[in-house]
Amino acid sequence: MRDLFVACIVFGLLPVILKRPFIGILLSAWLGYLNPHRLCYGFMLSMPVVQIVAITTMVGMLMSNEVKRMIWSRETVVLAIFIGWMGVTTMLAFHPDPAWTQYEKVIKIQILTFMSLLLLTSKARIDALVWIIVLSLGFYGVKGGLFTILNGGAYRVQGPFGTFIGGNNELALALVMTIPLMRYLQLHSADARVRLGLLAGQFLTALAAIGSQSRGALVAITLTALMFWLKSRKKLGLGLLITVAAVTIVYLMPDAWYERMSTINTYEEDASALGRINAWWAAWNLANHEFFGGGFEVWRPLMFSMYAPDPANVRAPHSIYFQVLGEHGWVGFIIFMSLISLTWLRCSSLRRMGKRQPQLLWAGDLGAMVQVSLLGYMSAGAFLGLANFDYFYHLVAIVVAAHYLVTTPQAVTVDPAPQASQKLSLGTLWAQLRRI
Prior knowledge:
- With 436 residues, the protein is mainly α.
- Helices cover 71% and strands 0% of the residues.
- Helix 6 (123-150) packs antiparallel against helix 16 and helix 8 runs parallel beside helix 10.
- The protein is globular.
- It starts with a helix and ends with a helix.
């Protein structure tokens, strides 16, 4: 039944995508974040649905008369350079065959990123993409939060098997990044039921992140909670929500959770932590000896035998920073960090414009909340190898598109809504989705 349901949605929308390709962007995001096909048990489980939808969207973009535009901002230029540099390091990789396989996956992610950027031509479309991300990952947040409450935090919250967010650590990072986007939608939703649902979603998603029993998530959610509060316009209500969530965590989580979290202070006795540090030193030494790094899939015995303090302790780096450093060298690392920094600064620009111009309040709130999301990615990502996670690149596209819309008078706007700052209710949400 699940297979038929997902198949009806995916294949039923393909003709629509040919006429309105932005629906394909939304469907790709839904498939990429919710992974409904990975929750099936039959023929849809192995169906290459994302590839099918992506190809259909490309055809729709070529066939459609809809105006499209590419924004060559400093972020997109840096991203294009990064993609090119990864191609160079792949050609010179220690293990060429698996490196090319991984590079193909990265290229597919980046093609979808640039396709999204081409079609994010209005506030309604930006909001629609944010909604899809929030609803998709919020499913696991709400489900995981309820699971944590019902089981007293005794079991780990996991993501869908075989996906970017399949592990408890990976899912926790995605959930921490999603809470700020929920807050943005809550601030700009006129319907009280929607606001209440998003408020409950933030609370349960935070519990799910803690219930993942990820130590990196604990660090990330602590930092993002502080930034969340500092960036918010309504600090009293948000402060109350954070306090309630913190008290709930204190009284809900079992002793085993506290014991695991306490190992943050005794990492020198933790085999997992020591393995990561060994991999980080290997990445550091590799980057200092190899200008182009080792390429994708370099984390194998050969590299560790040459550059690791403990050659026998072979494992992935579990860090976006050391992952990029080891795979693409110092040049790749600088490009990657530049992309993060420039996106952060672009968010700050949106925040300033939102403060100066009331009609751009939505852009200011979006910039502030994406900054909180980026902080979650940077903090939790310090302990996870998710440098190629499409979530981060979607955020880059969203911020670049939003900034272009509010700074370029001739920007393409296919949204006929009378005010860019208009809040959405349940009725107007459906009406706008029909127009995008």
